[in-house]
Specification:
Number of strands: 20
Number of domains: 3
Distance between the termini: 68 Å
Shape: globular
Structural class: alpha+beta
Largest sheet: 8 strands, mixed
Strand content: 15-25%
Length: 594
C-alpha cells in the first residue's frame, strides 16, 4: 500500500519542486520527474496563452489535489527516497536503503536491532545538477594519499559503517568501518576543487536509473538542507485575458508547430509551392481556427513570422517586453474577462499631496497569477543551463494558478526625471549598478542595464509593503511586488504592482484593495515615508557603504527596508533608503524630500 505525504501545490512549484529533497518525519524524499506525472484534463491550465508561448509549451499542469483519506480522482505524484544512507539515532551506524523503499524508516539497525533511523546530512552534487550519495564506503577505505582515486579504494570484505561525532563542527565528524577498523574525518572532503579522488556519477535520481549521464564536473560535498542544493527557476505571470485575435494567433502557432500537419498540408501545394485557399480554409476549420484569420495563417505557414524574432534579444529584454503587456493592461482597465481580471482606475486628484508623485492608481480587485517551474540548478544560480524535469521534452510544464488582488501605482515620470538629476542620487545609484555588475558576473548571467527609476520603484515598493502589512491584515510574507520598468528605451514603464494571491478559486478577501482607496492609501504612504526617515540602526544604516547579501545594498537593513524573501523579486538586493529620504547631510536629495 502506498503511503501519502502531503505538500501544498505552491511548494511543488517552488521550494520543494522536482529534484528537491523534502524532509518528512524519519525520511527524506525527492519528487520524481514529469515522466511519472499522471493528470486529468481538470488539472490543465490552458488559458495563459502568453506564458505558454514564452515557455514554448502548449499548456501547464497543476499538481493534483489529494483529498482526505488518500483518495484522488487521479494518481498522486510519485517520489523516491533520497539520500539512501540512513544513520541510527541510537548507535550512529549507517544503513543503506533503495530508491523505492516505501517503509517509514528502514530495516532494523544491524547493531542495536532498531528502526530508529534518520537520513544522513551529507550528499554530493555538481554544477551540472547531478546529485548522489556521499561514497561512505570508498571514503573510509580510501588509500592514504589525498589525490587517490576513490574507485581504487581498498574496501574490506564486509564493510559496516558508523558515523561518529566526537567534537564540534565538521572537524569533529568521522566515519568508521567497524569490520576493519579504518576511520577518517569528513572535513577533508570539503575541498574547493570538489571531493578529493571522486568523479561525478552523473546521477539524476528524480529521473530514475535511466537519467544517469556522463559528466566531467567535479562533485562537491554539501549538506542536504543547504540553500545551494536547489535553485528553482520559477516564472510568474499575471494573466491577461486574451481577446479574439490573441487566441486565434495562438491556435495558428500550435498548428504550424505540428510538423506532421504542416507536411500533409504542403503536399497539396502546386508547382509554385502555393496551396489553394479552399484547402487552407478546410484545414483551419478542422483545427478550430476562424477563417477570418487566413492571412495570418498563410504568413505563418509560408514562413513569414507574425512576431518579432527574439533570438538576438537578451533574456532581460524579453522579460521587459513581456511585462509591458501586463503594464498596458493594468493601465487600460478594459476588463475583457472579469472572471480573470478586474481593475478599477481611481481619480488621482483624490490622493491629496501624492497626486503629483503618482500619475495613476489602479485597484486590482481580482487577478490571476500563474507560476511555472521551468527547471532548477544546483550550487550555482546559472539559469542558462537548467536541469531537465523529464527524460524527454514535454509539451507542458508544471504550474499553479492562484487568485488574488492588488494595488497598481504609476509614478510621475517628470518628477522621477527631475529627482534623478541630483549628483548625490547619481553617486548612490552608481554604487548599486556596480553591485549589479558583480552579481551578474558571479551568477553567470547577463548584466542588466537598470535605469535610475528602477531603484526608486524598488525602494518605494518595500516601504509600502512593510506598512501595508500593518494596515491590510495580510502578513508581509503574503504580499509580493512586481516592478514594471523599461531598460533600453521603448515604451516607458514606471509602475509597481503590490499583490497577494491564494490557491483558493475565490481568491482573497479584499483587504488589500481597500487600502488602495484614496483616504487609506494617503495615510499608509505618509506612515511608510515617515518610518523610513529613521531606522533604529541609524546612523550606521544610512551611512553604510554596502550591506546585506553580497553587500548589494546601501541604506537597507532588516529594521527599515528588507522583506521576507518571498516578497522581493531581487532577493532583498539593490536597495537604498537614501534614494527616498536622502542622507543625514543632504536630506533634500530624497525623492520624498518635501
Amino acid at each position: 500500500m502506498k503511503r501519502w505525504r502531503p505538500l501544498r501545490r505552491t511548494q511543488i512549484i517552488t521550494t520543494f519542486g522536482i529534484g528537491a529533497m523534502v524532509d518528512f518525519p524519519g525520511e527524506s524524499l525527492m519528487l520524481a520527474g514529469l515522466d511519472q506525472w499522471k493528470y486529468s484534463s481538470k488539472d490543465k491550465i490552458i488559458d495563459d496563452i502568453r506564458l505558454a508561448k514564452r515557455m514554448n509549451v502548449k499548456y501547464f499542469v497543476q499538481p493534483p489535489v489529494i483529498i482526505d483519506g488518500g483518495e484522488s480522482p487521479n494518481l498522486p505524484l510519485l517520489s523516491i527516497r533520497f539520500p539512501l544512507w540512513y544513520q541510527c539515532k541510537t548507535c550512529s551506524t549507517l544503513q543503506k536503503a533503495n530508491w523505492y523503499d516505501e517503509k517509514k524508516g528502514l530495516i532494523k539497525c544491524w547493531k542495536c536491532d532498531r528502526s530508529n533511523t534518520t537520513p544522513v546530512r551529507f550528499v554530493v552534487a555538481c554544477e551540472n545538477g547531478h546529485i548522489s550519495d556521499f561514497p561512505w564506503i570508498e571514503w573510509v577505505h580510501k588509500i592514504s594519499s589525498e589525490d587517490s582515486d576513490l574507485d581504487k579504494a581498498d574496501i574490506c570484505d564486509n564493510p559496516k559503517l558508523k558515523l561518529e561525532s566526537y567534537g564540534p563542527g565538521l572537524s569533529g565528524i568521522r566515519v568508521m568501518c567497524v569490520n576493519c577498523g579504518k576511520k577518517t574525518g569528513i572535513s577533508s572532503a570539503y575541498s574547493q576543487n570538489g571531493v578529493p579522488g571522486m568523479k561525478c556519477t552523473g546521477e539524476r535520481p528524480w529521473l530514475g536509473s535511466e537519467g544517469k549521464e556522463v559528466c566531467a564536473k567535479k562533485p562537491k560535498i554539501v549538506q542536504r538542507g543547504a540553500s545551494n542544493v536547489y535553485f528553482p527557476e520559477v516564472i510568474s505571470s499575471i494573466l491577461i485575458p486574451s481577446g479574439k485575435k490573441t487566441s486565434e494567433l495562438h491556435k495558428i502557432d500550435l498548428f504550424c508547430n505540428d510538423t506532421e500537419k504542416v507536411k500533409k498540408l504542403k503536399e497539396r501545394a502546386n508547382a509554385e509551392g502555393i496551396i489553394d485557399k479552399l484547402v487552407i480554409e478546410i484545414s483551419m476549420e478542422g483545427a478550430g481556427i476562424d477563417v477570418a484569420f487566413i492571412e495570418e495563417f498563410e504568413n505563418r505557414l509560408y514562413g513569414i513570422e507574425l512576431d518579432t524574432d527574439d533570438k538576438d534579444i537578451s533574456n532581460d529584454q524579453i522579460e521587459v517586453n513581456y511585462r509591458l503587456d501586463e503594464y498596458n493592461e493594468l493601465l487600460s482597465c478594459e476588463n475583457i474577462d472579469k472572471s480573470k481580471l478586474i481593475t478599477n482606475e481611481q481619480n488621482i486628484l483624490e490622493y491629496d499631496i501624492f497626486s503629483d508623485i503618482f500619475s495613476n492608481v489602479v485597484l486590482v480587485k481580482k487577478l490571476s497569477v500563474t507560476k511555472v517551474l521551468r527547471g532548477f540548478s544546483r550550487l550555482t544560480t546559472d539559469h542558462e543551463s537548467l536541469c531537465s524535469l523529464s527524460l524527454e521534452r514535454k509539451s507542458w510544464l508544471p504550474g499553479v494558478r492562484t487568485f488574488g488582488e492588488g494595488i497598481f501605482l504609476k509614478l510621475n515620470d517628470e518628477k522621477v526625471d527631475k529627482w534623478s538629476e541630483n549628483p548625490i542620487i547619481q553617486k548612490r545609484i552608481k554604487y548599486l549598478l556596480e553591485r549589479e555588475a558583480i552579481l551578474a558576473d558571479s551568477w553567470h548571467r547577463d548584466k542588466r542595464n537598470l535605469p535610475d527609476k528602477f531603484f526608486l520603484l524598488h525602494a518605494i515598493s518595500h516601504i509600502l509593503i512593510r506598512q501595508l502589512s500593518f494596515e491590510c491584515g495580510y502578513g508581509s510574507s503574503s504580499l509580493s511586488e512586481r516592478i514594471y520598468c523599461n531598460r533600453n528605451g521603448g515604451s516607458p514603464m514606471s509602475g509597481i504592482l503590490i499583490y497577494t494571491a491564494a490557491g483558493d478559486t475565490e481568491g482573497t478577501m479584499g483587504g488589500l484593495v481597500q487600502q488602495g482607496k484614496p483616504q487609506n492609501l494617503v495615510r499608509t504612504l505618509k506612515k511608510a515615508i515617515n518610518h523610513s526617515r529613521w531606522c533604529s540602526s541609524d546612523p550606521v544604516c544610512i551611512e553604510s557603504k554596502g550591506q546585506g547579501s553580497d553587500s548589494s545594498n546601501l541604506a537597507a537593513c532588516h529594521t527599515c527596508l528588507l522583506l521576507p524573501e518571498t516578497c522581493c523579486e531581487e532577493g532583498n538586493r539593490l536597495l537604498d533608503r537614501g534614494l527616498l529620504i536622502g542622507t543625514l547631510v543632504n536630506p533634500e536629495a530624497g525623492f520624498f524630500n518635501d
